[in-house]
Every structure is written in C-alpha cells, then in structure tokens.
Design goal:
It is a single chain. It contains 26 helices and five strands. With about 600 residues, the protein is mainly α. The chain has three domains: about 325 residues, no CATH class; about 80 residues, no CATH class; about 120 residues, no CATH class. Strands 2-1-3-5-4 form a five-stranded mixed β-sheet. Helix 24 links the parallel strand 1 and strand 2. The radius of gyration is 26 Å and the shape is globular. The N and C termini lie far apart (about 90 Å).
Length: about 600
C-alpha cells in the first residue's frame, strides 16, 4: 500500500471515529433516501398558506412583495427567509427551512447519542428511532412537529454540553444547542410547553449522574449554575416572543390581523358538539343555527355581524359546552381508547426502544416510566382542553422517545445471544417500517380513483393514517379540469369554500416550489382560512369588489362565483338573514366533483 492510500485510509478512519461526522453521515443518508424515494407533502394546509403569505401570493403581481409576517412563527425568522426568496425566487425557502431544521435536530440527537453510547449494540436503538420518527419530519412535514423536535433536540445538545466533562467542543455544543432550540421555539412558541417537561427529566438525570460520580456538596453549585443557564435560555425564548409582538404591532393593519387571528383561533380550536349543546346560549345573544354553522365551517369573516365582542362571547359559549364534555374522567379514558394508539407507528417505535433500553440499561427504568407518565399526562391534558390532533400527539411521543434513549448508562458486558436477539428484532422492525414510506402505484388508478384515494388518505389532517406516508399526490394534477375551467373564465372570480378545497387542492403544488407572487389575485382564493383579515388578503378582496369586512354579502356580485360542496346553503341562509331576504342560489356547473354556485339577490 502506497503513502497516498495510507493517508486516504487514515482520513476515512478518523472521519468514522468522529461522532459529529457519523451523525451527519447517518442523517444525510436518511434525508437523501426520503428526498429520492418518498412522496413528500405537507401534512396540513397551514404550511402551504404560510408559504403563500411569505411568497407574496396574496399581493398584486405588479406590485407584489415578500411578507415577513409568518402567521404562526416569529417574524425574526421571516427576515432571513425574505432575503433568500429575493435572491433565489424559484425555491420555497420556508420548506427548505422546515426540512433543514428537522435534519439539524435529528443530527444533533444522533451526535449526543453516539457520544453517550458509542456505535455498538446501541446503534440499533437509534436507527429504530430515526426510522420510526423521521418520516413525520421529512415525508409529511408540519411546522408544529418540526418546532418541538428542534426545541427538544437543541435542549438535549445544550444540556449535554452543560454537563460535559470534556472541555473540547463543550462551548460549541452549548451554543449550537441554544441556536437549534431557539429556532424551534421561534417556529412555534408553544413548542416550549411540550419540550420543557421532558427536558427537565433529562436535566434531573444528568444532575443525579454527576452527583454519583462526585458528591452532592461538590456538584450542587455546578448544578445551580447549569440550571441558571437553562433559565437564561428560556428567557431568550420569551424575549424573542415579546420582540415578535412589538414588530407585529408597528403597523396597525398587522396588529389588527394578529388580534383578530387570536379571536378566530379561540373559536376554531374548540370542539364543536352540535347546535343543541349551545342553542340556548346562542339565542340569548341573538344567534341561531345558521350562525353556529358559519362558525363550524370557519366562514364567520363578517365583522359587521360578528364583531370582536360577539366572537369573544361565542368562544366562551363553545368553550363552556366543550368543557362540560371533556372535563370528565370517563371522557378522557374513552378518548384515549378511541385514538387507538396501537395503530401508531411511532408508538410501536417507543415500545421497541423502551424494551431494548430496559434490557440494556435497566438502571434507567425509573426515568423511562416517568417519561411515559409525562407523555400520558400530555395526552390527557390535550384531551381535557378538547385539542387532540396527531401532530400534537407526535410531538409528545418523539419527546418521550428521546428521553428514554438518553436516560440509560453505558453497559460493557452484554451477552452475545442478547446482542444477536436485539439485532434481529431491530432489523425486522426497521424493514417493516421502511415499507410504509414507499409511494403507492397511483398510475394504475383512474382520475376519479386517484382523487378519491388522496381524499380518503389525507382529508383528516388531525388524525393518524399510515396511508399519508405513501399516498402518491404528484402522479397527476388534482382537479385539472376545474383549474382549466377557472383559467378559461378569467372574467370571473371564484371564491372557494375552505372545507371544500384547500385540504386537498394544495397537493397540486409541490412544497419545494415557491407559490407565484400574486397567485390568488388572478382567478380564485380560499374563503375562510387562517388569513382572514390578513392585510394583503383584505386588499385582494377590495381589488375584486368584495368588502373585506363583509365579503359574504358580496357573493351576489355579478362576477363572483362560489365553489362549495358542503356549506352553500348555510352561506345563503346567512345572506338571507342579514342582507338580502330574497337571495337565492343557482348551480352553474360541477367540475371534478366541485360545485360552482351563483348567489343572486333575488
């Protein structure tokens, strides 16, 4: 072997010995496999709408602009994203950020895991974790899932740095951990409330481990300093929240939107239990079943009828009705059973990790149980408030799995037979899970079957469905005939009911491609989404002759057409009740199963 070959081999060996290099390599392979072989799509339409906002899709094409006011995230993230959109406008940098932050979070976790356990039998534990939990971050990404994953991963790297006995790299770990955690919290501030309980368990574990290695008296001061460092990091997160609020408040139009969005989400995030549950209270404030259904369908954007005081009263009524049902021990138990967690692949991932870690590191059993009890408490809390959706459940489960993996200790003497058993169990579990990500064969389906399969698999964004991971949404354009119909009728403007359109139609647009500037100013818009009262949308409505404070009443305008499969009667009754008693509707056409209506005054 010549000197060049020896040098080359030496560099490769050193690379494979480096926990950081190995962590990057492992996660890079998984990311590339996901990008090449999986059908990546946003799990929820919220990310598509956020991307539309920052891309300027609601603005006029001729005077369009990128908007840094991210709907659910800190505006401080919007500024660097705006620069990237300006420099390279063809890419959805919001999507790149979501995937990139997930990659960095998983890489940080891998690094800490390898530093703690090395690359022996414990490698299978982490590969199971990556296989069972990375799909939700890469294949069906959603900002809530990414934010909590990053907050926990950053917190893990930060805490491991605080307790590290090796000076080399310690400061880097603390700084990088802080940055990852803050980015996760900036993506969605509420992530902090899910991440902190699990990180506190990890902090206690590291503290007790350090005391065992030394003594309580010698470690106490260090632990207090480390805890103070954690509080300082939390303080930075809260400072970011207040800076975000101040930046939003600079312009009254954005401040008004933010206040209205809070009122809107207070209503939409409450469980609707049927009109009978609120009938008396609704009638007491002058509302009836038509109004209830307007709220139920998220189409209550008439500020002349539903002013802020009315919205606040409606929230209280709905919340009280919901609390009467959800604040019940029997309901909590039934809800946990009906969620059927045994179907969830991530729950199987936790179970396998728990079993292997219990066998390899029985000393950490108490921490594993505590972590699972905290996860159970989180599930019960969200059931209690009536807000159980899969993306929130996932954040609890991944946090639990991370704590279980990291609360063990190194074990040197493991019987060969046990190693072999763990190896075979792990490989079997990995193979079973890997097949869930392979896209289905959509080409064999008719257009109707293709659309129906996507609808059945993905319409319920708040529920778990294993089909979400492998449903192919890019084989052909959904609602192609309808989109051509809209383009060919450029003298008309189509207002699309949110429930009838957005939950499926956004799959027409690949998440890595930027939504064109001025996109919704051309032929259609989604009615009743999270952008209600958003400044650019208000201007868009004005441009098309619709009153931004009462756009529903202007559905009677000659060039405005309603696309609605579910709530056209409700909208008509609303118009009849508050504006035009003799209003009526006519079915204009049905294209790709979408009903197109014309509302007339009489």
């Amino acid at each position: 072997m010549n000197d060049k070959s020896k040098t080359h081999k030496f560099h490769i060996t050193n690379f494979l010995k480096s926990p950081a290099s190995l962590a990057i390599l492992i996660n890079l392979i998984i990311l590339v496999l996901a990008l090449v072989f999986c059908n990546i799509k946003y799990e929820v339409s919220d990310d598509y709408i956020v991307d539309s906002v920052i891309s300027g899709a609601y603005t006029q094409k001729s005077i369009g602009y990128y908007d840094v006011h991210l709907l659910f995230s800190n505006i401080l993230l919007g500024y660097p994203l705006k620069i990237l959109y300006t420099l390279i406008p063809g890419i959805s940098w919001y999507f790149v950020f979501i995937i990139g932050l997930s990659f960095v979070a998983l890489t940080a976790l891998t690094y800490v895991f390898i530093k703690r356990y090395g690359m022996g039998i414990f490698t299978y534990v982490y590969l199971i974790f990556l296989t069972y939990f990375s799909a939700d971050l890469y294949v069906i990404p959603q900002f809530t899932k990414t934010s909590v994953a990053a907050a926990v991963a950053g917190g893990v790297l930060f805490i491991s740095g605080l307790f590290s006995e090796q000076k080399k790299g310690r400061i880097i770990n603390i700084i990088l951990g802080s940055l990852i955690a803050i980015l996760g919290i900036f993506l969605r501030f509420q992530a902090i409330f899910i991440a902190l309980p699990f990180l506190f368990i990890l902090f206690i574990f590291y503290s007790i481990s350090s005391i065992k290695k030394s003594s309580f008296s010698s470690e106490l001061k260090k632990i207090i300093i480390r805890f103070a460092a954690c509080l300082f990091l939390i303080g930075i997160a809260y400072a970011g929240k207040y800076i975000n609020k101040a930046l939003w408040s600079r312009q009254s139009s954005y401040d008004n939107f933010r206040n209205y969005a809070t009122l809107r989400s207070d209503i939409t995030d409450v469980s609707f239990l049927g009109y009978d549950s609120v009938k008396e209270d609704f009638e007491a404030i002058g509302l009836n079943e038509t109004d209830y259904l307007m709220f139920r369908s998220w189409c209550f954007m008439d500020r002349n009828v539903y002013d802020d005081a009315t919205l606040s009263n409606v929230h209280k009524i709905l919340k009280n009705a919901s609390d009467k049902v959800t604040h019940n021990v029997n309901y909590l138990g039934e809800n946990l059973l009906t969620r059927d967690y045994m179907r969830y692949r991530v729950c199987w991932g936790i179970f396998i990790i728990f079993v292997i870690m219990t066998i390899l590191c029985p000393s950490g059993f108490a921490y594993y149980i505590i972590s699972m009890l905290v996860a159970l408490a989180g599930l019960l809390y969200f059931s209690w408030v009536g807000r159980v959706v899969y993306r929130v459940e996932y954040t609890i489960f991944i946090s639990c799995a991370i704590v279980i993996m990291l609360c063990g200790n190194q074990v040197k003497d493991i019987p060969k037979q046990l190693k072999k058993a763990i190896k075979y169990i792990s490989l079997t579990a990995l193979l079973i899970q890997a097949f869930a990500f392979i896209p289905d064969s959509a080409s064999k389906r008719t257009d109707e079957e293709y659309s129906q399969n996507i609808y059945d698999s993905l319409i319920s964004s708040g529920s778990y469905n294993v089909k979400k991971y492998h449903t192919n949404v890019y084989d052909r354009q959904l609602y192609a005939d309808f989109l051509r119909y809209v383009e060919n009728n450029d003298d008309k403007y189509f207002v699309m009911d949110f429930s009838s359109s957005i939950q499926i139609m956004y799959f027409n647009y690949k998440p890595w491609e930027r939504i064109p500037m001025g996109f919704f100013n051309e032929n259609y818009m989604h009615f009743g989404s999270v952008t209600m009262q958003y400044p650019a949308e208000k201007q868009l409505l004005i441009d098309h002759g619709l009153d931004p404070n009462s756009p529903i009443k202007d559905l009677v305008n000659d060039d405005i057409y309603l696309v609605d499969n579910y709530y056209s009667d409700v909208k008509l009754r609303f118009i009849q009740k508050y504006y035009y008693p003799n209003a009526r509707k006519e079915l204009v056409d049905i294209v790709n199963g979408l009903y197109i209506w014309k509302i007339k005054k009489q």
